[in-house]
Design brief:
Length: 422
Amino acid sequence: MQVHIRKARVIDPQSNYHDKVVDLLVEDGVIKNIAATIKSDADVVIAAKGLCVSPGWVDVFADYREPGFEHKETIASGLAAAAAGGFTDVLLAPNTQPSLSSKSIIQYVSGKAKGHATSLHPLGAATQNTEGKELAEMLDMRQHGAVAFSDGWKPVQNAGLMLKALEYVKAFDGTLIQIPVDAALSAGGLMNEGITSTGLGMAGIPPLAETLIVHRDIELVRYTGSQLHITGISTAASVDMIRKAKKQGLKITCSVTPYHLALTDESLNTYDSAFKVSPPLREESDRLALIKGLKDGTIDCIASHHRPHEWDAKAKEFEYAADGMAVQESTFNILWDTLKEYITIDRLAEAMSTIPRDIFGLPSPEIKKGNKACLTLFTTVDDNTLALHDVKSASKNNPFIGKKLSGKVLGIINNGQTHLNK
C-alpha cells in the first residue's frame, strides 16, 4: 500500500529535511521518496492545514492491566487508544496479575501486542511481584524484551533494596523507573496538602512525600553511578533537585504527565474523583515550575500515566475512588492546549519522540529515504473534541472527554501499518 503525505513540515533534528515542508511517499512501511512535490497514485493521501510529521511518539509509562484486570483495559484496547493518541511506542507498567516479574509474563504481553500499529515495550518489575521485598530476575527479563525496570504504581520504598536494584541494573546498563511517592507520608491522603485541601476538609499529601523520595534516589544514583528515570514529578522542589543533579553529571532523567502540566489542586473543588491521581495535582506555582522545567530540558519527556478504571471504581465516595486518568488518547491535545503559549512545537515533539528513544534505547528512525516509516502525523492549527463514543480505551475515566482542545493527531504509520483518525 502507498501513502502520500502532502506538504508536511518535518520535525526531526536528525533529518536533513528538518523544518522543511515536503511530500513523503510511504510504500509498504518504507519511506520511498521525500521531495518538495511528489506525483503519485497512492492508495491513501494525507493532507491538512499546518500538517506536521515527526518520528513516532513514545509514551514512557502507561498501564493496560492485562493479564488480570482486563475489565479495566486489555492490551488490544490500550494499543488502540495509543494509536489514536499518536503513539507508535508504549512502555507498559508492570502492575498486572501476575505482575511483569518473570520472562514468561514479559513474553506473554509481547506476544499479545504483535500485529498492532503501536509497539509495546514491557517494563519488568524491579522486585518480585512488585512487592518491594526482594529483587526480581531483571537480567533474565531484559534478555526477553524488558526495556527498563520499575515497580510502577508501587514505588520501591526500602532504600537498601533500591540501592541493590540500582547496582544490579548498572551491570548491564539498564534503567530503573520510579514514581516519587513515599508511601508512609502519603498514607491516608486524598489530594495535595495545602490551602485547597484545608478548605475542602480533605486529608492532604504533603509535597515532602515526593521530594523526600526524589532526594533519596538522587543520592543513591550518586553513590552507585547507575541510571534512574523519575516519572510523574509534580512539585517545583523536585524540578529544582533534578536540575541540580543533572548539572552535577548524574544519570537522572524524568518525565511529567499531561495533567500535572494542565491542572492544579483547585480542580478538586467539586469533589470530582476524576481528578484524583497519584502523585496528586499540586498548586499553580508547581504547575508553572513543571512547564519551565519542560521548556529548559530539565524535564526530558512525557508520560501519560494512562491508568484506566471501570466506571464504579471512580463513581464512588472520593475517599474510596481509585487514582488515575485514562488520558492516552487526549495527551497531545492536553499538552498543546496547555503549552502552546510557553514552548515550541519542536520542543514538544522532541520530548515525545527522540529524547525518550535515547533514554530507553529504542530505535530512533530518521525521516530519510529508504528508512522504515515510524511516523506521527499531527497539526497544531486545528482542534479536537474527543467524543465519548469515539474513545478507544476500554475505560472512560478521562475528564477531558467532550472538551474542545487545541491540536489534532491525524494518525501514525508504524510496523508497516497506517492508522488514521477520523
